[in-house]
Q: What sequence folds into this?
């Protein structure tokens, strides 16, 4: 019996072992894949079902939440006088209308019919963005705020301007 030298062992480990491992893997790979499918397939199917249930439940809950937020927004807008109040289905208490009242919308940059922008306390009103108008509202008197609100309602009806004017006007 001849003993193998350390050089032969090194060649076995570095060359023949990886080749043998690769050949064994190619022969065994289909069995390994099937075993993995058997063990994980049922778990993946369960995970898909649970995932669908979670998504459906989340969709229902978010829909309910959005509906409640919209109702609260309608109530706030009705409280500010931005939308009319209508009795609810039971006729008990008024509830906010779900749509805003129609407002005439002139072409951009033109004054609403019957109202003169020069009479407003904010110079160049028609050229200002909503955020620029909102910044100028706190310095106005209640009468000036009312005039801006009426002008805005008859014109572009920008909600940010109307909400801020109503907020500053008080109850």
A:
């Amino acid at each position: 019996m001849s003993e193998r030298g350390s050089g032969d062992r090194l060649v076995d480990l570095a060359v023949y072992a990886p080749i043998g491992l690769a050949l064994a893997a190619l022969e065994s790979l289909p069995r390994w894949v099937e075993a993995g499918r058997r063990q994980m397939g049922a778990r993946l199917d369960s995970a898909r079902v649970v995932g669908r249930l979670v998504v459906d439940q989340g969709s229902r809950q978010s829909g309910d939440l959005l509906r409640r937020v919209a109702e609260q927004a309608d109530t706030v807008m009705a409280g500010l006088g931005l939308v009319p109040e209508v009795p609810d289905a039971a006729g008990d208490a008024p509830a906010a209308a779900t749509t805003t009242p129609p407002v005439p919308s002139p072409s951009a940059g033109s004054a609403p019919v019957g109202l003169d922008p020069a009479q407003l306390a904010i110079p160049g009103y028609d050229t200002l963005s909503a955020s620029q108008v909102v910044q100028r509202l706190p310095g106005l008197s209640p009468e000036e705020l009312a005039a801006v609100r009426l002008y805005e309602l008859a014109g572009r009806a920008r909600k940010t301007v109307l909400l801020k004017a109503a907020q500053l006007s008080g109850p």
Observations:
- The CA atoms of residues 48 and 54 lie 10 Å apart.
- DSSP finds four helices and two strands in the chain.
- The helical segments are 6-79, 130-136, 142-154, 159-169.
